[in-house]
Amino acid sequence: NKTIGEDQQLYSMLTHPTTSLRGLWMSSTNLSSRAAIYLFTTLQHNKTLKVLNISSNSITDEVRDTMTTALRSNCCLEELYMWNNPMISADTSRAIVRALQDN
Fold this sequence. Notes:
The protein has 103 residues and is mainly alpha-helical. Helix content is 41%, strand content 9%.
């Protein structure tokens, strides 16, 4: 089964020069760590997204480096919801908070 987290068309849309997407709700979509890494890699180049909800997925600590890099470089994202991703450790959560504060 193909999940929304693995749909490359969505990610292409995020980086398209004419995109005006302001919010993306991907909660409870079976978003894997691999797909989240790809998502945050593309967000480094997105200048319109203000709200991202990736709650209740299967994201793990594997996303830490890519996510923190993206959060430091994306000045547009204002709200990030990622509760109920139980495989993310407290250390990774703290690193994400620091990245958001650095931005």
